[in-house]
Amino acid sequence: MKTFSRLIFIVCFLIGMMTQAQNNYPQNYFRNPLNISINLAANFGAVRSNHFHMGLDIRTNSQENLPVVAAADGYVSRIKVERYGFGNAVYITHPNGYTTVYAHLNKYFDKLDEFVKGQQYKDEKWERDIIFSPNQFPVTKGQLIALSGNTGGSAGPHLHFEIRDTKTEECLNPLLFGFNIPDNIAPIISGLYWYDRRFSTYEPGGNGIAVKKAGSVYTSNVIQVTSPQISFAIKAVDKANQGFNLGIYDAELLIDGKLVYSFKIDKIHYNDTRYINGCIDYTKFVRDKMSIQHLSNLSGMKLQNYSSGSDGIINLQDNDVHDIEIILKDVNGNTSRLTTKVQLNNSSEKVSSNNKTVVPNESKTIKTENAEINLSKNAVYDAVNFNMYEKSDAEAVSNAIVLNNPYIPIHDYFTLKIKPNRKLTNEEKDKTVVELNYGSDKNIIKAKWNGDWAEGQFNRLGTARLLLDNSLPSVSSSWKEGAIVTVGSFRLKGTTKIGDIESFRAELDGKWLRFARIKDDFVYVFDEKCPKGSGSHTLKMTTINTAGNMNMQSFTFQR
């Protein structure tokens, strides 16, 4: 019996060693960065707007200010303070070649918080990105490093946690490091799509196939297609045990038992995260809020270490019925299978595209009478029949320039040139911005001038125009002038007619005062710079908007 038990132990040990050797990540080296069980709101690789989710979003029970601890021994190598993005973040470098990142924090641990505050006052700048040497802030595993929060680009209280390769700065899937997160639920499949790959995946787009669960597998009716060249995409989520829609980790596509495509989300670099737009049906994601992942490569999608096998494009050379199997797995190995059949039926003729088609790996310049767009060879993931035209706009100092439509992704920045519809003075040029409206939001930047042409750089499509902005940004207080302020902090609301408040400066009685920027608000937490009982004070706020217009306002209050 002892011999048998020992044999079982050896087999389990060898399997564990093989698993660790396969992904080459240390198991159980890092601990849970919170003192509560890990419950995920998002996993690594989940689909987000213009990026993969690059870590774990760990729930904090809808609370802020929970203790955040170091996942292992190391030292604080970097902190960031920013309005969006990570908000307040801590980076810890570990001796085993990895760096952990903790984001959306409210407050750093006391010594670090005082150091950061001192640097902010020294440089009179709130947003900071500070690099530290190994001996400045060493930490031990389990040591308090911060309090959780909801800062930066966070939609609710949680901790964003990443593990990176220190040398390459690639983000690695934290779930491969042996965290104890129970999960016995397989991915859930809710839709299947096929695409005619003689054309772009954007036009005519995906053809939806209803799927149903039958026992332990998903099935659909025989898929009748009208093209000899097709590809598939899958609509699915990983629920884990916690109810949130998590991303798919591992997918395989087989035809007649032969693997033709697979992807696995183990690691991604921030330089490459925008390639998510070439891995999904971007049109359905933006227009219909649906996350559908391609089981094929688009020729402009160049994400490394993501897909393997062939390109996933299936060439049907007969009218036979062929078996299709799609296998989805999570990190724990929970598996879902979709089995169906596909048959070519009445192939249609391919039509040619016009000369404004933009294709991957080729740069393209497209012009109208008063506008020009210059797209790089990396601009698109799949062919785009690019439609660009002008229309009159009474509110602008140019025509509105329609750049195709916002449902087509662009990978990198392009240069857009627009000629105004009248001669502008130098003073007017200095107050001109370029607005790009892409439906769900607007991107507004200050125009750069090259003669009579305004230039701007964008990485999304939509409708662009030139606007003249002579308006002033402003902030408004929540207290009456001269009032006694007894609360622990106060908040000023920032507004601007066009664009954003690009910079601000606060001075209390003539000295710089540290305000945090939280979305559109400016927040000051009372400290030794303005203690209770210190009498009357004058707060001066200077704000500058996108066009460069400056406004100085003064507020009085008592403590």
From TrEMBL:
<protein>
    <submittedName>
        <fullName>Metalloendopeptidase</fullName>
    </submittedName>
</protein>
<feature type="domain" description="M23ase beta-sheet core">
    <location>
        <begin position="139"/>
        <end position="167"/>
    </location>
</feature>
<dbReference type="InterPro" id="IPR050570">
    <property type="entry name" value="Cell_wall_metabolism_enzyme"/>
</dbReference>
<feature type="signal peptide">
    <location>
        <begin position="1"/>
        <end position="23"/>
    </location>
</feature>
<dbReference type="Pfam" id="PF01551">
    <property type="entry name" value="Peptidase_M23"/>
</dbReference>
<dbReference type="InterPro" id="IPR011055">
    <property type="entry name" value="Dup_hybrid_motif"/>
</dbReference>
<dbReference type="GO" id="GO:0004222">
    <property type="term" value="F:metalloendopeptidase activity"/>
</dbReference>
<dbReference type="InterPro" id="IPR016047">
    <property type="entry name" value="M23ase_b-sheet_dom"/>
</dbReference>
<feature type="domain" description="M23ase beta-sheet core">
    <location>
        <begin position="52"/>
        <end position="117"/>
    </location>
</feature>
<keyword id="KW-0732">Signal</keyword>
